[in-house]
Design goal:
Helices cover about 70% and strands about 0% of the residues. It is mostly helical and about 150 residues long. It has one domain. Helix 1 packs antiparallel against helix 2, helix 1 packs antiparallel against helix 7 and helix 2 runs antiparallel to helix 5.
Length: about 150
């Protein structure tokens, strides 16, 4: 999974740099500034790096050394910021990749499995029940809204 995750990131960066060095530097700056924000917003709440010594995005043990564990749900503006940053990181290189169809295809061949794997495999087994993407969270809230028959 890390191969796909790092792979589509590298293809996206390369695709932007091939077309425009200036925009490539903007994208690198965005990613460099986004990583610590994502680690402190969302990743620090995941139990896996701290309790099980595994992490899907980083080498084992690195997350524990970078950020202290936080508890609780990610809500309000933090959730909006997390989703916005994630969407920008995924969608930013599309304009430049579209100009080079082979890079566009390579990006999505690596990105699509990652985007499918997270919600359908990882999220279903996740022990972080406060995660905004945890399916149990939506099942519980949906069950609460169903009127008794």
């Amino acid at each position: 999974m890390r191969l796909c995750l790092y792979g589509f990131g590298a293809v996206g960066l390369y695709g932007v740099f091939v077309e425009s060095w200036a925009w490539g530097l903007v994208y690198v700056a965005f990613l460099v500034l986004t990583v610590p924000v994502m680690l402190n917003l969302h990743c620090c709440r995941c139990p896996y790096p701290y309790e099980y010594e595994t992490c899907i995005a980083m080498p084992d043990g690195l997350m524990r050394r970078l950020v202290r564990r936080k508890d609780g749900a990610l809500g309000g503006w933090r959730l909006a910021l997390f989703i916005t940053l994630l969407a920008i990181a995924l969608l930013f290189p599309q304009y430049w990749l579209w100009r080079n169809r082979s890079l566009f295809i390579a990006y999505w061949v690596l990105c699509a499995p990652t985007c499918v794997y997270f919600p359908f495999c990882l999220c279903r087994r996740c022990r972080y029940s406060n995660c905004p993407f945890h399916p149990g969270k939506y099942l519980r809230s949906a069950a609460l809204k169903v009127p008794p028959s």
